[in-house]
Amino acid sequence: MESNTSSHLLFGAGRLTIEDIISVVKDKRGVALSGDSHFAKKIDSAVAFLDKLLAEEGHIYGVTTGYGDSCTVEIPLSLVNELPIHLTRFHGCGLGDFFTPEQGKLILASRLASLSQGYSGVSWDLLKLLVEMINRDIIPVIPQEGSVGASGDLTPLSYVAGSLIGERDTYYKDQVVNSLEAFSAEGLKAITLRPKEGLAIMNGTAVMTALACQAFDRSEYASRLMTRITALASIALKGNSNHFDDILFSVKPHVGQQNVAKRIQHDLNHVEHPRNSDRLQDRYSIRCAPHVIGVLEDSLPWLRNMIENELNSANDNPIIDGIGEHVLHGGHFYGGHIAMAMDSMKNCVANLADLADRQIATMVDVKMNNGLPSNLSAASSERHFINHGFKAIQIGCSAWTAEALKLTMPASVFSRSTECHNQDKVSMGTIAARDCLRILQLTEQVLAATLLAAVQGVRIRILNNEIDASALNPEITAMIDDVASFFDLLEEDRPTDKILRQTIEYIQTQRWALYQTS
Fold this sequence. Notes:
This protein folds into two domains: 9-204, Orthogonal Bundle (Fumarase C, Chain B, domain 1); 212-314 and 327-508, Fumarase/aspartase (Central domain) (Fumarase C, Chain A, domain 2). It is built from 18 helices and nine strands. The protein has helices spanning 18-26, 37-56, 83-90, 101-115, 124-135, 154-164, 179-185, 197-202, 206-236, 246-250, 255-267, 284-287, 289-311, 336-364, 391-406, 429-463, 474-486, 497-508; strands spanning 9-11, 31-33, 95-98, 139-140, 143-145, 169-172, 175-178, 319-321, 326-328. Strands 4-6-7 form a three-stranded antiparallel beta sheet. A two-stranded parallel ribbon has the order 1-2. The chain has a two-stranded antiparallel sheet with strand order 3-5. The chain starts with 8 loop residues before the first strand and ends in a 10-residue tail after the last helix. 51% of the residues are buried. The mean pLDDT is 94.
């Protein structure tokens, strides 16, 4: 069995978190199987029970019968060992773009988490090879399209099963090679699937769950970044910091919303509690930012719970209770909870894009930006006639936001009866997760643009002596300085696509440590 080290993520040892799974990619963390005796007993007993049942009764769904609507088809014993291979092959019909190597690795980790629950009847050889593939970066090439989210992610996971037996392509050392070639280079061997193992690998929610883990990680960061951007935009617009007062927010007890207001209050160095402010109210995109961002902040805990419960579940069918000697037929492959989580997250995240789009629209408009130059152009007075600042970038934000908002239509309500009406109600959880990641990409694009615009606005105020830079919060100053290190003040018109892409990359790699103690 894989030797364990303190730095390895153990499977079969206890409950895993989203951060655990993400660390396999983000921190290149190694994985290992637990040496716990109870874990070993569950794996061994399930395998032994299946062998015993096959020998004594000769009838097990998905082992000696066909699949799904074909469950009444009896498989001759002479063909039982070939059945799982056929399952991996006929589901090889996935289309669309391929998941990235990072996403493929998360999918492997997610499936390993489920199989390590010990209720799928899989062998040590299968579990160990999954561990080796993760640790040696032999990652299946998996098409994104073709799953209805029940029975699980059958078609995309067939590419995992096919890789294990040496029949599918993998990403290996920056190339796409057949898994047998990658295994040979690493001194590994493909496995021969035991009778239930094709079904065990494929009949589950690993793809949508892996994508949900990635979406959660990115949305959590997007929430904090949008909070920081709001503070910068408020400074650039010379906004009213009283909108984020802690007394004000104490009367509306949404904890996430309160935390967002507290973070902005901190960024703005807000300390006063006015008896009656004579300052005008800012537009909703600034004043109500905690109420928009707070919806996501308050949703994150229950979204985490749904995702992590799925991650730590046996989502196979049938469930094999080897210790109690039961074969339990059910629908744990149904991805309804992930579908709901992703459809909900889509709405929350797209609202961040909409909020940021409104903020940049305010900052570029001389009718609303409280004295900033048109389009935030830092061109000289002699040359401002022919320079356009953030004009086109703001138009781009409108386009990206519109596309994000369009995708918020819930996928989970588009169930289609399929597979001869055996799968007559399905989750569409993987489509929801893919939509969510696309919305995140679009939202990160809007956040990148709005961040650059807000920093530009603050720098213009400082250059015009309208803001005392020394009075700014040190964390705000540090972020302005860091952005300024790669983004020169936009004076003369120049292409900005490369700097936008660079900023998006910084967002996706979480360059800035935001509110780590709050």
